[in-house]
Design a protein that fits this description.
The structure holds two protein chains of two kinds. Chain A is mostly helical. Chain A has two domains: 204 residues, no CATH class; 69 residues. Chain A is 71% helix and 4% strand. Chain A has a three-stranded antiparallel β-sheet. In chain A, a hairpin with a 2-residue loop joins strand 2 and strand 3. Chain A is globular and about 75 Å long. The relative contact order of chain A is 0.14. Chain B has a single domain, classed as Rossmann fold (3-Layer(aba) Sandwich). In chain B, the strands form two sheets. A six-stranded mixed β-sheet of chain B has the order 6-7-8-3-9-10, with helices on both faces. A four-stranded antiparallel β-sheet of chain B has the order 2-1-4-5, covered by helices on one side. In chain B, helix 6 runs parallel beside helix 7. The longest helix of chain B has 16 residues. The radius of gyration of chain B is 20 Å and the shape is globular. The N and C termini of chain B lie far apart (43 Å). Classes of the chains: A mainly alpha, B alpha/beta. The interface between A and B is large, with 34 and 42 residues.
């Protein structure tokens, strides 16, 4: 709800006086309404991304290529001198992720909610600035503790640019993480010679995160079934107990896991067989469009 | 029969002394055996397995693998782990990769095999345990029974001579248990010696051809199932029950059968008479 309102306010401050007031008010209100509807369903756990990535139709494509292309697009998007190319990139990549990857639109937007709140807040602070004396070319202004909070055309263009760059960048990351399961990304990182220790840690953290979350979930449920969260004070106490137990359990478990690894002849290096996923024409075509477009966008302006 | 593993006066106890320990234990395990290890919680079954697999080293006494003593050198312990595989009680402790296929490849890669051989073994393990359609799934999206099969496939891919399974039927639904027994038969047909720790005396009676009974860290009895279950005082001393078929046989004063099917055949035979 707050994010939806925020989106409306940012949109309004961004286009005040560049668009006539009536259509602008209509667009802003529509944005609030649509984002409210789309953002209402975030019943996904922290592991939603992983299961979406695995079910994506783009999951079968070559991970190295996807990673390289997303990385390049990310750089091009943040380096773009004008707001339009990253905005196009955002729509294009979101389209690919949703349509080609067959990911439900609702879930895609629900996942966008967390970064969206950060993006909109930072856009808001860029747009609205504090002035002792009201600037001459102000677009919107509010009196504030003896000074003025105001939006100027300069801050509008800066805010717009930063917002669109960030949207483009987030869509790059989402394209990659919603089409490539993490273990495949680790394999890519291994190929570009990331230190083994870092990768082994990543791998173990990735695997045990699921176990930790499942255990925490079960413990919370069992505490709730014994009325552990009946009042604020009890909730605090129960939360403390649950996390304390969780830490103790984790230590015990870590020992067992190490034994299990040792029993399979672990000698200090974690390695798996990785599946070969050939590079297909489809994904090359798909990703060359934004790559070429973004590069042109850099030089045209 | 060729001897695979021999424990000679092996003892072990944990620091702090609260957890289960193992007192001087001498036992010989042979190729092709189907052994059930019975005992209540804390009887020393898991410690026995961890020692047999080389994760723990004996405090006193010696373990012999195919007649050769296993010392404290890393290389000798690796040889022991290579030959004797251990399937842990909780599959979540064991599974660590992102997909089933990667998971099964962990052991063979640690053995330092060439990629082609690793691939062959992974395929074979996937086929043997009917996991081919799960190869790209993450372990976090598997059911309890499926996780158990992956945990067994993990060890099968290392092609051990002997497989130790720590309470493999815990947390399985009835269908999962039936499937597990079929899996055990498949493994045995491949020539793998099986040692299964369990609380389930019915399973032990039906399946095993040799039973070891542990109690408070000691091997109390070692023998064929018929001999073991005749010793009722020992069973009650160790907190174990008689198999259901034994109790049925006692109540009806009929001979003891290995399976319920045999029993129902017998009843039909009597009715006709």
């Amino acid at each position: 709800m707050i994010t939806a309102l925020l989106a409306g306010v940012v949109l309004w401050s961004l286009f005040a006086e560049t668009l006539p007031p009536v259509p602008l008010a209509a667009i802003s209100a529509a944005t609030v309404f649509v984002s409210f509807l789309l953002g209402r369903h975030h019943s996904h756990g922290p592991t939603a991304m992983d299961s979406l990535a695995r079910s994506s139709r783009l999951c079968g494509e070559n991970a190295s290529f996807k990673a390289a292309a997303s990385g390049l697009l990310l750089i091009l998007s943040t380096a773009s001198p004008t707001p339009l190319p990253p905005l196009f990139l955002f729509f294009f990549l979101s389209g690919i992720t949703v349509v080609m990857g067959n990911i439900p639109v609702r879930k895609y937007f629900a996942l966008f909610w967390l970064p969206a709140a950060f993006l909109l807040l930072s856009a808001l602070t860029l747009l609205w600035d504090f002035y002792r004396v009201l600037p001459e070319n102000e677009v919107l202004s509010l009196p504030f503790f003896g000074g003025w909070l105001a939006v100027t055309p300069a801050s509008q263009s800066l805010g717009g640019l930063v917002l669109s760059r960030a949207l483009g960048a987030v869509s790059c990351l989402y394209f990659l993480s919603l089409s490539t399961p993490l273990p495949e990304l680790f394999a890519v990182l291994r190929r570009i010679h990331t230190p083994e220790v870092v990768l082994d840690l990543c791998m173990l953290i990735y695997r045990y995160l699921f176990i930790l979350l499942a255990t925490a979930h079960d413990m919370r449920d069992s505490a709730a079934s014994r009325l552990g969260y009946a009042s604020l004070l009890k909730s605090l106490r129960t939360t403390g107990l649950v996390y304390g137990r969780l830490l103790a359990n984790s230590f015990r478990r870590a020992g067992q896991c190490f034994d299990a690894m040792e029993s399979r002849c672990y000698t200090g290096k974690i390695a798996f067989l990785t599946q070969r996923k050939p590079l297909t024409g489809k994904v090359i075509c798909l990703l060359s469009i934004p790559l070429v477009g973004m590069t042109f966008g850099m030089f045209l302006t | 029969m060729n001897e695979l593993l021999r424990f000679e006066n092996v003892s072990f106890h944990y620091d702090g002394g609260e957890r289960e320990a193992l007192f001087p234990l001498s036992v010989r395990l042979f190729e092709g055996e189907k052994i059930a290890v019975l005992g209540s919680n804390g009887a020393g079954k898991s410690t026995f397995f961890l020692l047999a697999n080389g994760v723990l080293t004996p405090e006193r006494g010696t373990i012999f693998l195919k007649g050769q003593p296993v010392g404290k050198k890393e290389k000798e312990r690796l040889a022991l782990r290579k030959s004797v595989g251990l399937v842990f009680q909780d599959p979540d402790v064991q599974l660590l990769a992102g997909t089933v296929e990667e998971e099964i490849s962990f052991g063979p890669i640690n053995l330092g095999l060439p990629e082609k051989e690793v691939r062959r073994r992974v395929e074979e393990a996937l086929n043997s345990l009917h996991l081919t359609s799960y190869r790209n799934r993450g372990p976090q999206y598997l059911s309890g029974g499926e996780k158990r099969r992956v945990a067994i496939a993990d060890i099968l891919a290392m092609e051990p001579d002997m497989m130790l399974l720590d309470e493999p039927s815990s947390n399985l639904d009835p269908a999962g248990r039936v499937l597990l027994e079929t899996t055990l038969d498949t493994l045995h047909q491949k020539g793998i010696t099986l040692v299964v720790a369990t609380h389930d005396v019915d399973f032990a009676w039906r399946w095993a051809d040799r039973i070891l009974i542990f109690h408070q860290g000691e091997l109390k009895k070692d023998g064929p199932p018929l001999e073991i279950f005749k010793d009722e005082p020992l069973l009650s001393h160790c907190g174990l029950e008689l198999p259901l078929l034994w109790r049925v046989a006692q109540a009806l004063s009929i001979p003891v059968f290995r399976s319920p099917e045999e029993l129902s055949n017998y009843k039909i035979g009597r009715k006709i008479l």
